[in-house]
Amino acid sequence: GGKRYAWGVLLGALTINLITVHSFWPVAAVTLGNTLEALCGAWLLTRYGRFNPTIQSLRDYLRLIILGGGVGVGIGAVAGSTVLLVFGVLGSEAYFHYLLQWWAGDVLGVILITPLILVGRQTRKEWFDVKWLSEAVLLLSLTFLAGQVVFLDWLHDSIVEAAKAYWMFAFVAWAAVRLGVRGTVVVLTMTAVQALLGAYWGTGFFADDIAITHLANYWFFMVILSVVGMALATYLAERKQVEEALR
Q1: Which of 174, 166, 238 is nearest to 205 (CA)?
Q2: In the 8-state DSSP scheme, what is residue 90?
Q3: For residue 5, what is the DSSP state?
């Protein structure tokens, strides 16, 4: 949408920080960092016109998570954390920990939420295909059920020991092969929300993750699941485009 959308990022970051933090410098630093990382990520992605926001190729997806996520977020996180350090809000011993937490959280947002927004803006002819819609409903229903079992302890008395997080790879792979990028990002988002709720409520596979690893296991699981699923979906989408062009 262009640089003008940075004002929306600025307003959103400022609002949420004013609600949760009451000191001037933390609010200013985090708001500055959030806005800067969005601008840097967008500039890195679009500066040569090589990024297609429909994310229909593996190259586009890797550019998104590496440039928009890893590098862009890193610039904003370093800038914001350094401002906090300079003005004495952060101690030197907490600087790198805070920086890492900021970077990891926002990278996960780029990996999960950015593709959901970008592909959600597109209209696809499959929406009007009854067979495609039926398979999509079946897949999403089964994914939701598996997520409830694995992360929120449904059927706790019968299969609690067998319910493991690797179950979700089957549904993500199914979505990547049959539903494409759009279906994959929906499945990933659903899984991320269920897993986070389970960690917050102390149930399921990540029941103790907040206390033991401060959600580090959750972060690695969702990053790996997302990268594997989206890499497969974008690779297959790109291959399909090439085959259609050859025909």
Answers
A1: 166
A2: S
A3: G
Measured CA to CA, the distance from residue 173 to residue 160 in angstroms comes to: 23
Measured in residues, the chain has a length of: 247
Q: What confidence category does residue 126 fall into, taking pLDDT thresholds of 50, 70 and 90?
A: low
CA–CA dist 34, 198 (Å, integer): 27
Helix, strand, coil content of the chain in percent (nearest 5): 80, 0, 20
Q: Tokens representing 173?
A: 């792979």
Taking each helix axis as running N to C, give the angle between helix 92-120 and helix 180-201, from 0 to 180 degrees, rounded to the nearest 10. Answer: 140
Question: Higher pLDDT residue, 157 or 106?
Answer: 106
Residue 208, exposed/middle/buried by CB under 10 A (0-12, 13-18, 19+)? exposed
Q: Give the position of tokens 């929906």.
A: 186
Note the pLDDT tens digit of each residue in 192-223.
Answer: 999 999 999 999 899 999 999 989 999 999 99
Q: Quick one: how far is CA 4 from the chain centroid?
A: 23
Contacts of 76 (CB under 8 A, 6+ apart): 32, 33, 34, 35, 36, 37, 38, 40, 106
